[in-house]
């Protein structure tokens, strides 16, 4: 009972935190936004924002659905993966050349603390989530297929926006040749698959050990 209450309290905290971030993002003064940054679809074209909204709903859903519900824990596994992907690829590109992913103009509308809330502070929350409760992973080939479908869906959305308005969602994409763009998409998808396997292995290692200890007792 104590563990369940702790899990519920933690997910309530996550729901409140991510909802707070979503509201802050939606309240951004668009008059101060550099031309083109939010053109077409606004915030809804950025994977970070889509993750925030999705995980806020997932955290709220966790408060309503029984902890044993496999569907809820399966959804959480994918949201954790997406946030891991965002944090990893954002900081890899940012540290190389921030203008490729988060231009200095963005500092005028998104303060540093909010940027870190979106791309840094989420990481310890993810680690707590992984160790707080076991997560359900389908058979690997099915999990990979679903992940591939999700990746293809978002990449299609990014390409559609480019076709529609003639501008890439992320500055980096506009710097790449068609071949380099294909390689970047392939490498990004490969990174997502790698993080999926890492999460699966970490989950099995952590909770498998705990189950074995329980049986021994």
Automatic annotation (TrEMBL):
Transmembrane ranges? Answer: 12-28, 43-65, 77-96, 116-132, 144-170, 182-205
Q: Which Pfam families match?
A: Far-17a_AIG1
Give me the reactions it catalyses.
9-(9Z-octadecenoyloxy)-octadecanoate + H2O = 9-hydroxy-octadecanoate + (9Z)-octadecenoate + H(+); 12-octadecanoyloxy-octadecanoate + H2O = 12-hydroxyoctadecanoate + octadecanoate + H(+); 9-octadecanoyloxy-octadecanoate + H2O = 9-hydroxy-octadecanoate + octadecanoate + H(+); 9-hexadecanoyloxy-octadecanoate + H2O = 9-hydroxy-octadecanoate + hexadecanoate + H(+)
Membrane topology recorded in Swiss-Prot or TrEMBL:
Multi-pass membrane protein
Q: Where in the cell is it found?
A: Endomembrane system
Identify the GO cellular component terms for this protein.
endomembrane system; membrane
Q: Which UniProt keywords apply?
A: Membrane, Transmembrane, Transmembrane helix
Task: Give the record's family classification.
Answer: Belongs to the AIG1 family.
What is this protein identified as? Androgen dependent TFPI regulating protein
Q: Which organism is it from?
A: Erpetoichthys calabaricus (Rope fish)
| Encoding gene (name) | ADTRP
């Amino acid at each position: 009972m104590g563990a369940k209450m702790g899990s519920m309290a933690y997910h309530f905290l996550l729901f409140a935190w991510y909802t707070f971030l979503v509201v802050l993002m939606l309240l951004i003064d668009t008059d101060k936004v550099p031309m083109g940054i939010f053109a077409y679809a606004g915030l809804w074209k950025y994977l970070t924002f889509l993750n925030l909204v999705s995980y806020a709903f997932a955290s709220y859903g966790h408060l309503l659905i029984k902890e044993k519900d496999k569907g809820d824990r399966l959804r959480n596994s994918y949201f954790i993966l997406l946030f891991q992907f965002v944090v990893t690829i954002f900081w890899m590109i940012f540290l190389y050349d921030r203008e490729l992913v988060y231009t200095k103009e963005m500092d005028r509308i998104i303060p540093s603390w909010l940027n870190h809330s979106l791309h840094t502070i989420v990481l310890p929350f993810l680690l707590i989530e992984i160790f707080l409760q076991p997560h359900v992973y389908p058979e690997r080939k099915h999990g990979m297929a679903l992940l591939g479908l999700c990746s293809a869906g978002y990449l299609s959305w990014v390409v559609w926006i480019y076709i529609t308005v003639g501008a890439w969602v992320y500055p980096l994409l506009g710097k790449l040749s068609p071949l380099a763009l294909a390689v970047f998409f392939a490498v990004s998808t490969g990174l997502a698959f790698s993080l999926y396997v890492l999460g699966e292995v970490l989950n099995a290692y952590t909770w498998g050990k705990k189950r074995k200890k329980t049986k021994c007792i």
